[in-house]
Amino acid sequence: MRLDLPQTLEELAADSAIIRADQADRYRRRYGVIEAVEFIGPNPQDPTFDAPVQIRLLPSQIVLPGRRIAELSNTWSWRTASAPERPDDPINDTVLAAAGTLCQGAPIYLAPRADGSTYAVALPYENTLPTLMPRALVAGLADLSNPELSRRAVLAAASQWQIPISGDIDFANDIQVRFQGDIATEVLVSQQPSILEMATDFYYFSLEHELFAGLQKPEILLGTYDATTWYWENPEIMAYGREHAILPFAQPRRPVAEVLMLLTAAKPALGLWYHSFQPTKTGRQAVYLSSGPKLPPPSQAAIHAVLARPVPQGWDRDRAAVSYRQQRGASIVE
């Protein structure tokens, strides 16, 4: 698949979204929590492109080589051979992300000076294939300010990693990215369930809690929704999505048609089995989860009552029933 040259700053920023997520994850795993960074670099008047900068990570005291790529005053003034003729840009998150693209996805820091000026510094880029590619794909796609650029971001990452792709989009190493139009909806990894399969596996187990426990006091806000969109409001489930490469958990917004699937799949991840709905002052509906009482030992009557309920349209009823029997005791039959 062909990747056209970026025509806007937003497209330039999207081109490194996944690479930047991978590089940031590598730095966290290698150096731990970075509480602060110290810089020794050029003065603001030095016109040298890519001037060297010494970077010290704290509290580890690790010293890394970096390079200045821009000076910041009222605008972002480029100081890198990667953008020798680019005019000044406004200072915002998009230009910071675009700077990452011009530096192959390397982490970018803003370095303040004692005189009040600031410059942008690129850290070293690690030019090896990611060991946690699904996690990088999910984090990069979840962070896109414009989800319509998802396909472009995936194509750019595959190109930089020099990984052959096919289909919609299938990586050569058993990873598939699914799309709705140009918006990525899921990253599938061989031998791991999809978000629909996750929800299906726990549909009846969740339903039994709802049928026999009655109303429960809300404990955590899971998300809110309006007529078109679901909004995650729970940082724990979003972090879980990034850690386990589950894109529907990591993306801030999802289609409202997925509400039941998302909340059912989130329950086992959070260990909370009861949900409730409440209106909000903004006009959205809020979904809360709570722990509630444990289920009693399984009985034939309860199992039959639960399995008598249909699954939502498009869900695999046989899979749901098999999973439920395993969760409640393999000897229980319909």
For the CA atoms, what is the radius of gyration?
24 Å
Query: What is the quaternary state of this protein?
Result: single chain
Gross morphology: elongated
Major sheet size, sense and barrel closure: 6 strands, antiparallel
Mean pLDDT: 93
- Helical fraction equals 25-40%
SSE pattern, N- to C-terminal: HHEEEEHEEHHEEEEHHEEHHEHEEHH
Which runs of at least 5 residues are low in confidence (pLDDT < 50)?
none
Measure the end-to-end span. 49 Å
The counted number of beta strands is 15
Number of helices: 12
Percent strand equals: 15-25%
Structural domain count: 3
How would you classify the helix and strand content by structural class?
A: alpha+beta
